[in-house]
TrEMBL record:
<dbReference type="Pfam" id="PF12833">
    <property type="entry name" value="HTH_18"/>
</dbReference>
<dbReference type="InterPro" id="IPR018060">
    <property type="entry name" value="HTH_AraC"/>
</dbReference>
<keyword id="KW-0238">DNA-binding</keyword>
<protein>
    <submittedName>
        <fullName>Helix-turn-helix domain-containing protein</fullName>
    </submittedName>
</protein>
<dbReference type="Pfam" id="PF02311">
    <property type="entry name" value="AraC_binding"/>
</dbReference>
<dbReference type="InterPro" id="IPR037923">
    <property type="entry name" value="HTH-like"/>
</dbReference>
<feature type="domain" description="HTH araC/xylS-type">
    <location>
        <begin position="173"/>
        <end position="263"/>
    </location>
</feature>
<dbReference type="InterPro" id="IPR014710">
    <property type="entry name" value="RmlC-like_jellyroll"/>
</dbReference>
<dbReference type="InterPro" id="IPR003313">
    <property type="entry name" value="AraC-bd"/>
</dbReference>
């Protein structure tokens, strides 16, 4: 399978196509894809789903996807790397948690975001603004980043997050979604708090999670926090103090302890 490699932190693409030119592929970056006009099918991870004007998709590096165009389609792409999120050019990104949450919960919205009429109008304006800023993306970098965060906020409120316990597959999506969203707030990841959120007993949620994932709830949270902290450290733009503040940890030594105990 073809794999595309992007080395720039951010690429903004705006194009219209009658025939999709790319094979089924993966890539090393994330893609926010806006369907300005047109219709067809989006093939992602072996599942074929219809798309139409106004749809937004979020694709990660390990998603294999392609489009089958049935009606001329106007695509707008925001293609960004981990470097873009975690301090491109040595600049630490404010508000990165919102985008991290959206990315880590991709499994809840493979089929695209179902936006309200009002949110659809706002998203259209944001994408149009970003396209208008791309001619000088270096000078407009901070403005573009603010638009990306605005998109993240709108897409988050259109995610199918479930609070009550329902069918099993959807239950696990909801639990993962809750953990990813609240990884920065340790007090909200305690079993009694999570059990209350999902309206189940404290003695139920841990065994339920272990039965469906093979990991204890505590181990999954620990591993997930570890992977996110390691990602920030690898970027070289975050101090241990900043990381501690971001993840609700006591201080720098607490960060070091998390890294030691999660290896």
């Amino acid at each position: 399978m073809k794999r595309y490699h992007q080395y720039e932190p951010l690429i903004i693409a705006d194009f219209t196509a009658n025939i999709w030119q790319h094979p089924l592929h993966k890539h090393n970056h994330y893609e926010l894809i806006y369907i300005r006009t047109g219709k067809g099918m989006h093939v992602i991870n072996g599942v074929t789903l219809p798309y139409e004007s106004g749809n937004v998709f979020l694709i990660g590096p390990e998603e294999a996807h392609s489009f089958e165009i049935k009606e001329q389609t106007h695509f707008i792409y925001l293609k960004f790397t981990d470097q873009y999120m975690h301090g491109a050019g040595g600049q630490i990104r404010d508000g990165v948690q919102h985008l991290e949450y959206l990315i880590k919960s991709r499994e809840t919205h493979y089929a695209g975001f179902k936006l309200s009429a009002q949110d659809s109008r706002i998203v259209d304006m944001i994408f149009n603004l970003v396209v208008g800023l791309r001619a000088d993306s270096f000078t407009n970098d901070q403005i573009i980043w603010m638009q990306v965060l605005s998109l993240a906020a709108i897409l988050q409120r259109n995610m199918p997050e479930l609070k009550p316990v329902g069918p099993r597959g959807r239950d696990m999506q909801a639990i993962f979604c809750y953990i990813h969203k609240n990884i920065y707030y340790p007090n909200l990841l305690k079993a009694p708090i999570m059990a209350g959120h999902f309206n189940v007993s404290q003695d139920y949620i841990g065994p339920y999670f272990k039965r469906n994932t093979g990991l204890t709830l505590r181990q999954y949270i620990s591993d997930y926090r570890y992977s996110m902290i390691r990602q920030r450290i690898a970027g070289g733009n975050y101090s241990l103090k900043q990381i501690a503040n971001d993840f609700g940890l006591t201080d720098e030594s607490h960060v070091s302890k998390v890294l030691r105990t999660s290896k």
